[in-house]
Specification:
Elements: H1 2-7, E1 11-13, H2 23-35, E2 45-50, H3 68-83, E3 88-93, H4 104-118, E4 122-128, H5 132-141, E5 148-152, H6 161-169, E6 173-177, H7 190-199, H8 203-213, E7 216-218, H9 225-232, H10 241-249
Parallel strand pairs: 1-2, 2-3, 3-4, 4-5, 5-6, 6-7
Helix pairs in contact: 2-3, 3-4
Amino acid sequence: MKTALEAGFRGIDTANQRKHYHEAGVGAALREAYEAGFLTRKDLFLQTKFTHLAGQDHRLPYDKNADPHTQVMQSFASSLEHLNTDCLDSLVLHGPSRRRGLAEEDWKVWRAMEELYHAGKVKLLGISNVEIDQLQELCERGDVKPSFVQNRCFARDGWDREIRRFCEKNAVRYQGFSLLTANTHIVARPQFTKLVSRYRCSPAQLIFGFALQSKMLPLTGTTSPVHMREHLGAYAINLEANDMLLIESIGEE
């Protein structure tokens, strides 16, 4: 985390889910940066998630026997403590409780998140690991519409094309994760390697450059200082329209 801040990252995505994240570790790095005068809270975009019980391990941020509303409030309070802040820029539902449609439990969680939004505790809400029918329902029935969708982004599905199109039409920002790890099969394709050579970039930079020009917010979880600098370099890439179309469909071949 400290290395990422030093490299220039200012948007941070985490979750109060010890199974896969270390939210308190993020907070510890931020505290050191604040104390050193390296940056301030205003320099950062902090986003975390509420995770249903089924997505957690035994290290829970809430009472497993509590109702969904209470669990959201307990998890959120824990996140604020971990991240040394009194307000979050974004709070994301870490995924619906079932594969299709939204269950009553999901709505109770979303209403609790809306309560935090109306209280000024969080500026924006979002949802992750979501299918198109669930996103449509949330936008139709939610009092506060999601500002973000965060999905695993597969080239074989046109980089989650259906969800991205819905997001663009409904003023929702798309956050793509696993852009590299979910799409390693396209890197060795001749069309892709030719583009890497022509733009004088790395495969990762080409994918992230494509994502940025496609209006995605690409997420990276690298721990390598070299890769961090490389990924930030994707902002300098300017792909031609035909090359954008090629990458858009390259995984569907």
